[in-house]
Amino acid sequence: MSAQEIAFVIIAGAGSLGAIRLVTSKNVVHAALYLVVALASVAAVYLIVAAEFLAWVQVLIYVGAIVVLLLFSLMLTKAPIGRETLDNQQRGMALLVAAGILGGLVFLFQDAFGASSEVNPQVTRTADVGVSLFRDFVLPFEVVSVLLLAALVGAVVIARKDEWAEQTGGGADLGAKGEAERAG
Amino acid sequence: MIAALLAASETGNFINDLFDSFWLVLALKVAMVLGLALTAPLAVGYMEHKVLAHMQHRLGPMYAGRFHGWAQLIADGVKFIQKEDVIPKAADPWVFTLAPAVALVPYIALFLVIPFDNTIFAENLDVGIFYTLAITAISVIGVLMAGWASANKFSLIGALRAAAQLIAYELPMILAAVAVVMQAGTLSMVGITEAQHSHWYVLTQPVAFGVFLIASLAELTRPPFDMPVADSEIIFGAYTEYTGLKFAFFLLSEYAGIVAFSAIAAVLFLGGYLGPPFIGGLLPGPIWMSAKVGALAFFIVWLRATYPRLREDQLQRFSWVVLIPLMLLNIMVTATLKVLV
């Protein structure tokens, strides 16, 4: 085994362990922290294949922003302090979905890369990533930014609903409707 | 020896020049990063003691180590080690114990890319500045872990404030750095410094410099942005339940953060290891770099003695309504000028 493969086995092992504990953990905050392990190991795998920029994007976006936001909202709403435990009744369904996704991914990877196990990591300069993103893939890039803008506007609309209803009078109905929608 | 280090380098890194063995180079680099990350914060901590004291017309520590109390922080460290390691009964012991390390390690890792001359650095990553901004974001997870695991409402409120603050101020900080990166045309810390031979970016990006400093204060939860540890409201925020060595870790991460962010600001806006025009050649790069980091750290301490604490809602509004639009505008102007000029 090359040094790269040994590193991959260690990182993949740690990541898988994190992912398994993520779904078996009985405490939401612990689960979120195991998610950090799983996501960070994905970043480490990117580093192994010399995708440096992608690795730090993974750290900044997933570990630094999404997990922080997740922990933040968990702690604001329902993060039991102490030994409360949680469990859910969707195990069978979850297993089915997970198996489906695994099967799909294995099929897709086989289809895309075939039996060749050749891994040929090339050190890419970040400038090249930028050039290819903004020259060859500029349309998908712009489409994604419009999508994100739409999501942002949607978030603002949902957050402002009650205030708007209060200002225009007759807010009781609308407000209640908004509450019901959110609850449903 | 020093002259040899400063002379044109074969591999671009002074440690790689001197030794061939991979493991020896690795060990030396780790030693260099750890040495810097564990001693520079002590110097800044001592400076804070003395500067604050003199600004308040006191003497500050005077006895430890005989000369103006220079060994005060070493004595403090010994004291922290001796203290009882208390873990609250209701706390989550694992998360509680891991939290200080999660808060500290990112700031140590950050020293990896800080250049002290064009050959004196541990690693010149191609994504340098992006790496520093990405890795500092991890630190707040440690604070959130500490706040939740302490099983204390004040701790939890402190942690939530710290996280909200980080989410709000990470954005203007990154946007401020983006303007500089656009101007320099590179993400590498050495590259950004080298691009400032003709003029420092503080001249062309003064607004970004100000916003970057404000955002670093907020990320470090330093006054006037220290609501997460507001002692009049929530005791000491997420760190309330911590004692001894674990508490010392949090303190160390705060001061390592001051050094690290001062160094990043020095590289981005003050020409890093380059001296000012005309007299730049008089002193070697490492001394210029250290002087700039020291000056910025002094400025951060100075603000603590000067400004009162903001309110939580003022802080959030300031970031989302003032700083972020300002930085977006700054990027637009920079991009337009870059294309035109």
Structure description:
The complex is a heterodimer of chains A (184) and B (341). With 184 residues, chain A is an all-alpha fold. Chain A is built from seven helices and no strands. The longest helix of chain A has 30 residues. Chain B is an all-alpha fold and 341 residues long. Helix content of chain B is 67%, strand content 0%. Chain B is built from 15 helices and no strands. In chain B, helix 5 packs parallel to helix 13. The termini of chain B are far apart. The N terminus of chain B is likely disordered. At the A-B interface, helix 2 and helix 3 of A face helix 6, helix 7 and helix 8 of B.
SSE arrangement:
The complex is a heterodimer of chains A (184) and B (341).
Chain A: H1 3-24, H2 28-48, H3 52-77, H4 91-113, H5 126-135, H6 138-167, H7 171-183
Chain B: H1 2-6, H2 14-18, H3 22-55, H4 72-82, H5 93-110, H6 128-136, H7 139-149, H8 153-184, H9 189-194, H10 201-204, H11 206-219, H12 231-234, H13 244-269, H14 285-306, H15 312-340
Helix pairs in contact in B: 3-13, 3-14, 4-13, 5-6, 5-7, 5-13, 7-8, 8-11, 8-15, 11-13, 13-14
Alpha plus pi helix count of chain B: 15
SSE series of chain B: HHHHHHHHHHHHHHH
Q: Which regions of chain A contain 5 or more consecutive residues with pLDDT less than 50?
A: 170-184
Please name the fourth-level CATH homologous superfamily of the largest domain in chain A.
NADH-ubiquinone/plastoquinone oxidoreductase chain 6, subunit NuoJ
Taking all residues together, what is the mean pLDDT of chain A? 79
Number of E-state strands of chain A: 0
Rg of chain A (C-alpha, Å): 22 Å
- Total individual domains of chain A: 2
Based on helices, strands and strand pairing, what is the structural class of chain A?
Answer: mainly alpha
Portion in strands of chain B: under 5%
Poorly predicted tracts of residues of chain B = 1-8
The percentage helix of chain B is 55-70%
Shape of chain A: globular
- For the terminal residues of chain B, how far apart are their CA atoms? 43 Å
Topology pattern of chain A, helix = H, strand = E: HHHHHHH
Cα end-to-end separation of chain A? 54 Å
